[in-house]
Specification:
By secondary structure, this protein is an alpha+beta fold. The protein is about 35% helix and about 25% strand.
Length: about 150
C-alpha cells in the first residue's frame, strides 16, 4: 500500500492512515471510491449501530483514511472535516448532494441508504426502524490517485 501511494506522489513519511472502502460490495466500493478519487464525493454516512456492533470508536474530525477499491488499490486519502450523529430523517438535501451518489437528490440518498442500512442491520442482528441514528461525515481529499489510463 505504502509503495503504491508513494508511486502516486503521496507523502508517506508519517504513519500510514487506516485503509478502508465505502459500501459492502465490489461494485459499490469501486463506484464510491471512484467518486472520491474524482472529487465528486465529499461526504459519507453510516449506521451508528454498525460502529457499536463492531466495537469500533466513532471517527473524529482530523482522522485520515486511505480509500481503496475492492481489490485494494489506493484511490484517495481523505481527512474528516465534520462528524455528527443525526436521525436518518434529519439528513438534509445538501448532505445528500455532497455524497455525490446517484442523481444527488435527497430522495435518492434516502432510498439508497435505507437499502444499505437494511443490509447492515441484517449483518448485526437488528431491525431497521424508520429513523435510525446516522453518522454523517464530511471530508476533504488530501491525495487522489491519478486517473486510470484509458
Amino acid at each position: 500500500m505504502r509503495t503504491a501511494l508513494v508511486e502516486q506522489g503521496f507523502d508517506c513519511t508519517e504513519a500510514l492512515p487506516p485503509v478502508g472502502w465505502f459500501g459492502d460490495s465490489a461494485e459499490l466500493a469501486s463506484e464510491l471510491g471512484e467518486l472520491v478519487r474524482q472529487g465528486r464525493k465529499s461526504a459519507t454516512a453510516g449506521l451508528l449501530w454498525a460502529w457499536e456492533a463492531d466495537g469500533d470508536p466513532l471517527p473524529a474530525v482530523g482522522d485520515r483514511e486511505v480509500i481503496v477499491g475492492w481489490a485494494g488499490a489506493p484511490l484517495a486519502v481523505i481527512e474528516l472535516t465534520q462528524v455528527r450523529v443525526v436521525p436518518f430523517l434529519e439528513v438534509d438535501a445538501e448532505f445528500a448532494s455532497d455524497e455525490g451518489e446517484g442523481d444527488g437528490s435527497l430522495a435518492y440518498w434516502r432510498a439508497a441508504h435505507r437499502a444499505f442500512f437494511v443490509r447492515e442491520c441484517e449483518r448485526i442482528g437488528r431491525e431497521l426502524p424508520p429513523d435510525p441514528p446516522v453518522v454523517c461525515m464530511r471530508f476533504r481529499v488530501v491525495h487522489a490517485a491519478p486517473a486510470p489510463a484509458a
